[in-house]
Structure formats: C-alpha cells, structure tokens
Amino acid sequence: MQNDLFSTAWEILNIPVPQEKVEQTYLAVNRFSNIKPDLNLAATDLPVQKLPVPGRPDKPKLVQPRELPRRKINSLEGRATLLHAICHIEFNAINLAWDAVYRFRDMPVQYYLDWMKIAKEEAEHFSLINDYLNELGFAYGDFAAHNGLWEMAVETDHDVLVRMALVPRVLEARGLDVTPGIMKKFENVGDTRANEVLSIIQREEIGHVEIGSYWFRYCCEQRDIEHDKTFRDLLKQYLNSGIKKPVNYDARLKAGFTQQELDYLENNM
Fold first, then answer.
1. What is the CATH code for 5-29+66-267?
2. Its pTM surpasses 0.90
C-alpha cells in the first residue's frame, strides 16, 4: 500500500481480484480514516490519470443491458442471476468510491472521509451478496453484466460537480427506487436471507446518495449556481430518456433530494 491517499486509491482501483480489492479497501480506510481536517490533501505530485477500465476480473462478461436475459426469480438460477446483477453493481460501486477519492483533488478533507466510508460499505455490500451467491452454489462472474455505472464514471471524470450530480444522485439513487420491488419478489419466493442483505444495502445506500447530494450542493454553492436548476440541466444533457418509474420519494427525500427536484422528476418521467 502506498504512503499517500491518492496513490493508495489508484492502487486499489487497479486491483483486478475482487477479494483483494475488498481487503485492501478495509486496510486503506483504517489507515487513512484519521486524516486531520486541516490537512492540505491537494498538495501532491501524483498526476490525475484517465481510467477507461478499472481493475476487474475476466468475468463477468460485459454486454449491453438489452442483451441481459430476463430474470425469472421463481427458479434458483433466476434468483442467483438477480443477486449477481446486484453484486456487480456493488463491485462497481467500490471502484466508483475510490475514483471519487482519487480523481478530485481540491475538495475539503471531509469529502475524502465520506467517500472512503462509502468505499468500505460498498465492499461490505459486495461481500454480503457474493457470500450468499456462494451459499446458493454460484459466484460473481457466473453471469453476464453491463458496465453502465462505470461508463458514467468515465463521462463525468472531468468535473466533481457533474460526478456528484449524476453518479450518486441518478445511477446509485436508482437502487433506492427499485430495491423495494426486488425485495417484494424475494419475499414472494420465501428468500428471507436475500431480503436481510438488501435491507442493509438499502439503508446504507440512502446515506451514500445523501453524501452525493451534500457535495453536489457544496460544489454549486462554491460556483454560485442554483442547485435545482443545475441538476435539471445535467439530467437533460446526459440523460435524454430521463429517469424511469418507480421513484422512491421517501428514500430520495432522506437522501437529500429537494421537493422541487422530486416534483421535476415526477413531471418528466
């Protein structure tokens, strides 16, 4: 492990083995979690590099979302396929958190503490889902997956404001919207363990989106721009199709969305 936070983040981003990425995440968060608030983290000679593809295993095979098979949850393989999709999201979320640490160098120290906390919790989420997949006789990599989360990370790697608006508040917030419906499906087939894990993930993901909301508004205030309008403009620029139903209004309110933003989403779906 490197001696400075940004080098460590880069190192973890490039680890291809999931379990090693998880373990190094835990070690790094423990090591750097006591950063002093007045420390000037921006003072580094490490250049910020583009990262089209982070460290990942050879499997799962990445395909377009439309190429993924329909997940019929009434079979064991169907349940595993759905869990695998969530597991893949959590693996990507580890990389997204470390990229948020690595890439944007001029933020307050609390920003890095927040995103390290997210990295740790995403690693825990990945492990919970992967362990349960193993119990069911499957493993991460057994099914195809898509790369939408990381593709948005690449599209937003030029500006922390855009990243905070579109990754936590759009793509990750989508999990807040759809997880209750997924949990209902698992409930209908009697899979209580899946719902125990998803309950943990849903609760902590609200906090992750809330952190994204906080730093998005912080960036808007620093640039003296209005955050509701900025969010709407970014949605129009990057997501021509808008946000799909359902929208979990209660969870999004807890995660830092304003009523004005939610009204806009309701009227533009």
1. 1.20.1260
2. yes
